[in-house]
Amino acid sequence: MLGYDWPRLHAALNDLPTALLLIAVLFDLAALLTRRDNLRVVGFWVLVVGAVGGAAAVISGLQAEDHIQHGEAVHQVMETHEKLALTTLGIFAVLALWRIVRERRMGRGERLASVIVSLGGLGFMFATAIYGGKLVFEHAAGIPSAVLQGELRERSEGHHHHDAGEAAGHEGGADSTGASAGHVDPPGTAPHTHPPGTPPHQD
Fold this sequence. Notes:
single chain; mainly alpha; 0% strand; elongated
């Protein structure tokens, strides 16, 4: 339905759940160490929202896969990225459901187990992000072939920046005084001009 917009949507949905899940784990760790219930409550709700956001990111990624032009090398990286993403989502989805059902009845040992599971989920999440970065920065996945070919042509031709003085010097072969390029007046003399129709002279 969205066509090429799926990869863009996937890119837009990635960052928020990643940040939320990381924050949730940090709050749970802090709650476990300090035994402060307010930190635990914040970690619980951030985990639930992050898991929902992660589901949206994974769904958009699965849709984006069918709308990205790619070869075999990209396909292999994409498959690994997909497996890691599904594993990450599975860990945090199960953890969120576990917390929803058991949150008010968890003992310290059970909470410690949930934190350990969440740390494992973070490991898979970071691996997912690494392979996602490889898709974009090493294989240019998501960039249409025509756009990529045009960019490669421009890079091969080179691109140079000029300041205002250099740009003025390149226009018409004259400097800011109107003298022809390559001619320098002696110090202390006023710039000279040529009558109309006079051919340029060589110094």
